[in-house]
Specification:
Shape of chain A: globular
Number of domains of chain B: 2
CATH superfamily of chain A: MetI-like
Oligomer: heterodimer
Strand order of the largest sheet of chain B: 6-7-8-3-9-10
CATH topology of the largest domain in chain B: Rossmann fold
Number of helices of chain A: 10
Number of strands of chain A: 0
Strand content of chain A: under 5%
Structural class of chain A: mainly alpha
Order of helices and strands of chain A: HHHHHHHHHH
Largest sheet of chain A: none
Shape of chain B: globular
Radius of gyration of chain A: 20 Å
CATH superfamily of the largest domain in chain B: P-loop containing nucleotide triphosphate hydrolases
Helix content of chain A: over 70%
Strand content of chain B: 35-45%
Distance between the termini of chain B: 29 Å
Number of domains of chain A: 1
Largest interface: A-B, 19 and 25 residues
CATH class of the largest domain in chain B: Alpha Beta
Number of strands of chain B: 20
CATH architecture of chain A: Orthogonal Bundle
Chain lengths: 220, 357
């Protein structure tokens, strides 16, 4: 396989793995974040603190824990997904879930409470009033998605420990950069790093461009 | 006939009782002003009427029907509150104005027609595609009004609709509310701490003090009833007690009186009252100058600037003329006159500006 084809394959795999992880974290994290931001219940502060702390979990530590869980002798070893892209997706989703939840809950909580009341007094029911609050949080929720995807695609520990950096199967951009560096192929490593940075920047630019359209659509 | 009725309503915020056994009937089509000092319970009362405030005890009836959890959303569709704090959605002026109609599922053509008309009335047509939060304070207040007006609510509630507005926007909003009330038969309830605004606008006035409804009736009834002892100086500026004596000004048609206020401060007014009197002087009718100005105004008082308070576009200058007299001026006037605390100034106002009760 040529270098270009290999780079393209690694890049597409990185996008797939981290994109799926971000999708899962978005689907699970945003509803939890919205609930934490809007509802006041016993244990809410503890949960918020817990998710905030989990944002700083070292990726190697999470990688090790998940390795023990998914290894053949671990509780989820029966699924035999260790050293596959699927386990990297799960690992990255777990890694970025606290980021998604924390930023979303913070942004929803910081929307002026008067927005919900404004919607109510204009005739909205409770669900529509809550939707107004979420709509006002849109910029923050987008930031949560952006930060989560960026964290997923740029992390190394989970991808390396769970995926094993197997060529043609689990090698992603960050594990490729690590390998190139240990082999002394600095130029190749720098080239792969450039691709990773361009991907991250491009993703955020596209997200911001989409923001205007989505905002417009939200108000239609 | 009462459209909204509050029966023995109490609202507690933890240990503080915000409303204490308030019973109040709001008549269909009337313009009711609720006055009281800051923290008296005006906003809480409006929130109760709007169905936004849970009650600690008591009942609210809308069209003779008890408001409960099951019909409160239906009631909210007919009662709209314009908040004191400027609150707008982060979208354009036009979409803000249409937001209430959209949640009601009104068709697009009707939405467009009502929004266009409302923006014309509040003089925001040219700004319809601007982001609402980029508007000035006065424009945002007018947009808040337009958002409520397009819904054609049965009851429109306004919490301090002119607070922090400059005199021009205050006039626009005041005119608008009176027109709405007269032309559409809409019931309007507004809260204010400005006695003059209440007197000028309201068919009836309700006075709330420390969470209790102290008095309700026509402006004349309310102000005759020991204004000072109920709310007095803490509620607004330029409310004084004095003694009026008729002065012969050479004309038969109008009676000029000289009123001696506290500390022997004298003002002249056009009034039919003799003897004990309560006086109010609108802060926007008082002209401040460095030197005496040649004018037809009968009241020129010299004093020292006690306090300068900037609230939005308006500047309130309190001058000690023997008693504290507050004048409302613009920021540019403040800069032009270069006034600061301790400066000597002249406060000038016409006899017709002095209101007596």
């Amino acid at each position: 396989m040529s270098l270009e084809s290999e780079l393209l394959e690694i890049t597409l795999r990185s996008l797939f793995v981290s994109g799926m992880a971000a999708l899962i974290a978005t689907a699970v994290g945003i509803p939890i974040g919205v609930l934490l931001g809007m509802k006041h219940f016993r244990g809410r502060s503890f949960l918020k603190g817990l998710f905030n702390s989990m944002m700083a979990v070292p990726t190697v530590a999470l990688g090790l824990i998940l390795y023990l869980i998914f290894s053949s002798s671990g509780p989820l070893g029966i699924f035999h997904i260790l050293y596959t892209p699927y386990v990297i997706i799960i690992g990255q989703a777990i890694l970025i879930l606290p980021i998604m939840i924390s930023i979303t809950s913070e942004t929803v909580e910081n929307v002026d409470p008067a927005i919900g009341e404004l919607a109510l007094t204009l005739g909205a029911d409770k669900t529509a009033a809550a939707a107004s609050t979420i709509r006002e949080s849109f910029g923050g929720i987008l930031l949560a998605i952006s930060a989560s995807f960026s964290r997923a695609i740029s992390e190394l520990g989970v991808a390396l420990m769970l995926g094993g950096n197997i060529a043609g199967l689990t090698r992603v951009l960050t594990t490729a950069i690590a390998l190139d560096t240990t082999r002394g192929e600095i130029a190749l490593g720098l080239g792969t790093t450039a691709i990773l940075l361009v991907l991250m920047i491009a993703f955020n630019v596209v997200l911001r461009l989409a923001e205007k359209r989505v905002r417009w659509w939200l108000w239609e | 006939m009462g459209i909204v009725e509050l029966k023995d309503v109490c609202v507690d915020f933890e240990a503080t009782r915000a409303l204490d056994s308030i019973s109040l009937e709001i008549r269909k089509g009337e313009l009711l002003s609720i006055i009281g000092s800051n923290g008296a319970g005006k906003t809480t009362a409006l929130r109760v009427i709007a169905g936004l405030q849970p009650l600690s005890s008591g009942e609210v009836l809308f069209n003779d029907e008890l408001v409960t959890g099951s019909n409160i959303e239906q009631m909210r569709k007919q009662v709209t509150l314009v908040f004191q704090r400027l609150t707008l959605f982060s979208t354009t002026v036009c979409k803000n104005a249409a937001s209430g109609l959209r949640v009601r599922g009104i068709d697009q053509a009707e939405v467009e027609s009502r929004v266009t008309k409302a923006l014309e009335i509040v003089e925001l047509t040219d700004l319809r595609d601007r982001l609402a939060r980029k508007l000035s304070g006065g424009e945002q207040r007018r947009l808040n009004l337009a958002m409520a007006m397009v819904l054609k609510p049965t009851v429109l509630l306004l919490d301090e609709p002119t607070v922090h507005l400059d005199p021009e926007n205050t006039q626009i909003v005041g005119r608008l509310l009176q027109t709405l009330n007269k032309r559409s038969d809409m019931t309007i309830v507004l809260s204010t701490h400005n006695i003059l605004q209440a007197q000028l606008m309201g068919d009836r006035i309700a006075v709330i003090h420390r969470g209790r409804l102290e008095k309700i009736g026509s402006a004349r009834d309310v102000f005759r009833a020991e204004l000072d002892s109920i709310i007095g100086q803490e509620m607004t500026s330029n409310v004084f007690s004095g003694h009026a004596k008729v002065v012969d000004d050479g004309t038969k048609r109008r009676q000029l009186v000289r009123i001696t206020l506290e500390n022997d401060v004298g003002v002249e007014a056009i009034s039919d009252i003799e003897g004990p009197v309560t006086v109010t002087i609108p802060s926007e009718d008082i002209v401040l100058s460095r030197d005496t100005v040649l004018s037809s105004a009968r009241n020129i008082l010299k004093g020292t600037i006690q306090e300068i308070s900037i609230e939005g576009a308006a500047v309130f200058v309190t001058v000690d003329v023997g008693l504290p007299l507050t004048a409302q001026i613009t920021r540019s006037s403040l800069e032009r006159l270069d006034m600061k605390q301790g400066d000597s100034v002249y406060a000038t106002f016409k006899a017709t500006s002095v209101r007596t009760y």
